[in-house]
Amino acid sequence: MASLDRVKVLVLGDSGVGKSSLVHLLCQNQVLGNPSWTVGCSVDVRVQDYKEGTPEEKTYYIELWDVGGSLGSASSIKSTRAVFYNSVNGIMLVHDLTNKKSSQNLYRWSLEALSKDSSPTRVIVSNGDYDREQFAENSVPLLLIGTKFDQIAETKRTEVLTRTAFLSEDFNAEEINLDCTNPRYLAAGTSNAVKLSRFFDKVSNPQPGYRYRILWHDLRILDHVMSFFVFL
Amino acid sequence: MSFLVDSIIMFTSQVLFFGFGWLFFMRQLFKDYEVRQYIVQVVFSITFAFSCTMFELIIFEILGALSSNSRYFHWKLNLYVILLVLIFVVPFYIGYFVVSNIRLLQRQKLLFACMVWFTFMYFFWKLGDPFPILSPKHGILSIEQLISRVGVIGVTLMALLSGFGAVNCPYTYMSYFLRNVTDSDILALERRLLQTMDMIVSKKKRIAMTRRQMYQRGEDQNKQTGLWGMIKSVTSTQTGSENLSLIQQEVDALEELSRQLFLETVELQATKERIEYSKTFQGKYFNFLGYFFSIYCVWKIFMATINIVFDRVGKTDPVTRGIEITVNYLGIQFDVKFWSQHISFILVGIIIVTSIRGLLITLTKFFYAISSNKSSNVIVLVLAQIMGMYFVSSVLLMRMSMPLEYRSIVTEVLGELQFNFYHRWFDVIFLVSALSSILFLYLAHKQAPEKQMAL
């Protein structure tokens, strides 16, 4: 299990979903008072303790790279943005729970980042379409974050949460739903905080090429084989 | 009977335009947003539909389609509806959505929206005073009052866009103005950008580390009691926080630098793409066009100056003038009436199509540039307002491009406006806009290579 000296996590998502507020909350433990448009990329550093209290305790400085912009930007902006996607250790995909389009756009965001990544261990060949199998094989840990949770009416909550559950399955990632203006959602001990630290642990200590999920068709073949043996 | 048939035709075409506006809104403007308030989409499509119907009526006028009575009736109806929309409906909804965005005024949304509307009406009315647009025989509450003011705003917008477009078009098309950008320039800038980001990261790590140490030491020092402990804690935290603020200032400066480097790189990438485009066949064609456009632009500025200086308003339209020239000077005889109708139809058709297309493209660009999740509704409604006023005034100005026999309907419907004033006003604003665009583009062009060498 190798540990890295530089841990870089990308924070991607549509314009206005709350990436800058989220990064500020994660790194400064404070709510961002005056959010404004991000030009280019803004970086912040989060101090994360790995295996606190054990003899293997290590403190990591996780760099959160908040890349601004939208999917419909000019190609000159896209090619300049690609500079930030090099040697990425993890990606946080941020979407706005009140805006369905921002969740749908996450497929394109993740493809943009993963296909531009030039380090040799990452091979994603895509023709621009979403491919579920590639996401299952992808070795860059992903985390799905839904913002503006407080702006959803109580009646619509189950519908929204079902939608995000499908999304997290597609990305083979955990999901967190929160409101970036309220630190209570990430308080120590909440399931959100646990998922967050699990994600950061995965990012700073990458397991070499290990598939965490069996693909469905593998399972079905297994099923057939088992039923065959039953009849014998 | 024919009136009924005509009305059905008009109504069908209006529904078609409405559908087109709806689709445009959904596919182009609100590509990345979710439409939550359908009223915005409806209002936008209605404005678009009625504006296009006006153009359609002009075409029918030239072609002589539909009977003259029903044309007149539909003109009047259309005009009333579009004025209603532009002066009452759209501003009210703009006020309503602006008020909804502000948290403080949530309770009395309608009341505040009405207040905003009354303020708008006040300024709208005041707009008419400095301009000699009315003849004294009109009363206070007549259609002419409203149209004249809408016309002034619309003509100003048209002239501004026209002036800027006339200058920007050759500037963008011609490759003469393209700066030379090589791949190594871009790579060097990207490297600098990444280096700056790395420096920001290392400084932020230091800040985080120092903060953590201060926090831990602060905990230890809370256990220390006595005078000596208190003095020690004060001095060490002070130097700690001084250090922090110094590093924070350096970080702020570096972040500003990184933003500038990012924008510079984007510009260089865009220039590189334009250079590549200019080498293609399409690019060369546009380059060639650019030379023509620059001549046209210079001629238009010249004509605008002449018109203003010599206080001259063109009496005849280009079609009749062209026919006159061909008949009198070149001696070619042909059926004037027949050709004048067809040529005006083609000319007016081209003007209409290019102005609609140009306006929609410009509006889309503006919308992408300035809208965000919260303000998208307001901005779309503002754009609908601009679009409506633009189209109404282009009908006004188009009168000059049509031969005399077709002008009468426009004059009849719009009332006794001082059309000459509008043309003069257009020339003035066009001149101002074109000259300031030239100045602006010249400065921007000069500044860019200097910036590159400084960085």
TrEMBL record, chain A:
It holds the Pfam family Roc. CDD domains: RabL3. The keyword Nucleotide-binding applies. InterPro entries: P-loop_NTPase. The keyword Protease does not apply. GO terms for molecular function: GTP binding. Keywords: GTP-binding, Nucleotide-binding. Required for KRAS signaling regulation and modulation of cell proliferation. Regulator of KRAS prenylation, and probably prenylation of other small GTPases. Required for lymphocyte development and function. Not required for myeloid cell development. Belongs to the small GTPase superfamily. Rab family. This is Rab-like protein 3.
TrEMBL record, chain B:
Coiled coil: none annotated. Belongs to the Golgi pH regulator (TC 1.A.38) family. It is found in: Membrane. Pfam families: ABA_GPCR (PF12430), GPHR_N (PF12537). It is a multi-pass membrane protein. One of its GO terms (molecular function) is voltage-gated monoatomic anion channel activity. The chain crosses the membrane at residues 6-26, 38-59, 79-98, 110-127, 147-169, 288-310, 343-368, 380-402, 422-443. It comes from Gasterosteus aculeatus aculeatus (three-spined stickleback). This is G protein-coupled receptor 89B. The lineage of its organism: Eukaryota, Metazoa, Chordata, Craniata, Vertebrata.
